[in-house]
Design brief:
Elements: H1 52-67, H2 72-82, H3 87-99, H4 106-119, H5 125-136, H6 141-154, H7 159-171, H8 175-185, H9 196-209, H10 213-226, H11 231-243, H12 247-256, H13 258-261, H14 268-281, H15 285-296, H16 304-319, H17 327-337, H18 345-357, H19 361-370, H20 384-400, H21 404-414, H22 425-448
Length: about 450
């Protein structure tokens, strides 16, 4: 049982990842005072826009999509409202929907697929391949990944397909491919190619998730030098510093770049979550709660990703016996209003944290009933994220009911796949933290007896 107390990582250290295992891209240092001009990451959009205004707006939307900046999905819808024939905008909308796992937008996805199909030869073959890959997403993430991966294999500079494949590798827990897919095409990119900072940041994140922290930091800092304030690169650095136990550096990093990420960015809440984790590493629970109140609970909570970050932070505080006051009840109210029927298991598990902590028995029961049973005793075709959901939800309920032995029993069953929860290693670490605290409390109960 002692191995379960360790961080459940499917990764190797930097020293174990040989330079020959992924194609290293030579990174020339910038001359003193020189900065590569910012270029739109648009050169690899599918062709088909004769209207220069539509093309210009698509370039801007793609830049924002890659930087997780503003509201690119709304911008793309605006382009299509004015230019319904824009093939590039339809391809971008498909990519945004699949990348963001926006099941509520399936009608828009179908409309863009139909528009490209009806366009026939007016849309180039590449656009039709994007439509076909997006159509596969209606069958699941894995078929969609196969479609977008095929595009990347043929066109390694298609940054739209690369961004979608990267997001799908992440959701599916394909940690080695999260690193290797981007690394395999890195040799086709350099500073002269639009979108290069985004490619560096994606490659850096894949390296970080596989324990290659030195290389991850190097590439992320390079991306940040090329595009100051680039939030995806800041995100990678936050992960590296959290995983290496460098909380003060992490806090300094986030403070130094706060103007770039704290508002109007898709990473705004998530990087605030990282800030709170750094405070927890310093055992400053009060500061972590202050971050929760100011930058997480005060944000647009209805988004599932925001609700998940809120649950993940409050649960870590609960494991530390920190009184969260009425915060759990308010958060559970938001989760009860959320549409969970189409939500990924990752989000349902985080909803269960709130229902368990707030003693919402009816909501917890409904959530459990919505989870399909998965046989994890042997070989299974279920994705790890799906296989984890029911046991982890029951473990959370057992912990909240002070049944620590029951919590441990449920977590022991899935420890071998706990690192593939559908999120990052930092997010998946909640299972280990729960196991450790349940072990301590169970031991105390035995001693007291």
């Amino acid at each position: 049982m002692t191995e379960l107390l360790l961080r459940p990582l499917d990764r190797r250290t930097h020293s174990e990842i040989g330079a020959g295992e992924w194609p290293a891209q030579p990174l020339r240092p910038l001359a003193r005072g020189k900065r590569v001009p910012s270029r739109p990451a648009s050169a690899f959009l599918p062709e088909g826009d004769a209207d220069p205004e539509a093309a210009r707006r698509c370039r801007r939307a793609l830049d924002d999509l890659l930087a997780h900046r503003g509201h690119p999905a709304e911008a793309i819808d605006g382009i299509l409202a004015d230019h319904p024939e824009s093939i590039a905008a339809h391809c971008l909308r498909l990519a945004a929907i699949v990348r963001d796992d926006n099941r509520a937008a399936e009608a828009a996805l179908a409309a863009s697929i139909a528009a490209i199909t009806v366009a026939g030869s007016a849309a180039d073959e590449h656009a039709h391949r994007h439509a076909a890959a997006a159509a596969l997403w209606l069958e699941g993430d894995l078929p969609a990944l196969e479609g977008y991966a095929a595009i990347v294999a043929e066109r390694p500079r298609d940054i739209v397909a690369l961004a979608v494949a990267h997001a799908l590798d992440f959701r599916l827990g394909n940690r080695s491919m999260l690193r290797d897919r981007i690394a395999a095409v890195l040799g086709h990119w350099d500073e002269s190619v639009p979108g290069y900072p985004a490619i560096l940041a994606m490659c850096a994140f894949g390296l970080e998730e596989n324990g290659a922290y030195h290389d991850a930091e190097r590439l992320a800092r390079r991306a940040l030098a090329l595009e100051p304030g680039f939030a995806p690169a800041i995100h990678v650095l936050a992960h590296v510093m959290e995983m290496e136990g460098r909380p003060r550096e992490g806090l300094d990093l986030l403070a130094a770049h706060e103007s770039a990420w704290a508002d109007g960015n898709g990473f705004s809440v998530h990087l605030a979550w990282h800030r709170a984790l750094f405070h927890l590493q310093l055992n400053d629970e009060a500061a972590a709660l202050a971050v929760y109140d100011a930058q997480i609970a005060g944000s647009s909570l209805p988004y599932l990703s925001v609700l998940a970050d809120a649950s993940a932070l409050l649960w870590r505080l609960t494991l530390r016996n920190v009184d969260s006051g009425a915060r759990w009840q308010r958060l559970a109210d938001h989760w009860e209003k959320a549409r969970l029927s189409d939500a990924r298991p990752f989000f349902r598990v985080h909803a269960m944290m709130a229902f368990a902590a707030a003693a919402r028995r009816d909501a917890a029961t409904r959530l459990l009933d919505s989870l399909p049973p998965v046989d994890i005793s042997g070989e299974t075709s279920a994705l790890p994220e799906q296989a984890l959901a029911l046991p982890v939800c029951k473990a959370l309920l057992a912990f909240a009911a002070q049944d620590y032995a029951g919590c441990l029993a449920w977590l022991e069953r899935v420890n071998h796949i706990a690192h593939r929860c559908g999120g990052s290693l930092a997010q998946c670490d909640v299972s280990r933290l729960t196991f450790v605290e349940a072990t301590r409390r169970a031991a105390r109960a035995r001693w007291a007896a």
